[in-house]
Amino acid sequence: MKKFLSVALVALTMMICTACGSSAEKPADKTEPAQVEAPANKILVAYFSCTGNTKKAALEVADILKADTFEIVPAQAYTSEDLNYNVEDCRANIEQKDNNARPEIKSKLANPAQYKTIVIAFPIWWGAEPRIIDTFVENYDLAGKTIVPVCTSGGSEIMTAEKNLQALCKGATVTSGKRLGITSRDEVKTWLDSLGL
User: SS3 for 53?
Assistant: First the structure.
């Protein structure tokens, strides 16, 4: 009788283990598709700011979008003399008159491939984006990404910068831009929401 009970107990134990093994495999099968899903749509706000106005606007955009930020810092900082537009041969004037000028950037963006959308914020210099923005966009493969230009300006609009970025950002979709600093946070949020980022 003891021998019969031992055999029955072994058989019952094997059945329970087999049943547990089967049920343990099912959840693994269910979770497998989640491991191959595409990563979330990460957003970056990259900004160039000499006086702090553009930085303030860029950080507001980053806060609204819950985006990462990257400051475009020139290898050679701009001095107040460099930005004195009243002097014909100041650095900013010389660069803006030369479509091929590409001021060097101090550091590179780590892992740009992780971002599907890049908001690029800059001041308007002589009706266009500063040449350091051209340096930034030409340093990376932007194909397949969405580029959103935003600017700060005392009066100039963003249209020329928009056209320039459309030509420079090969393979990317460049959205309509927006001039910030004269708009409320709610207006900025409404505009960003309309882009469907």
Answer: helix
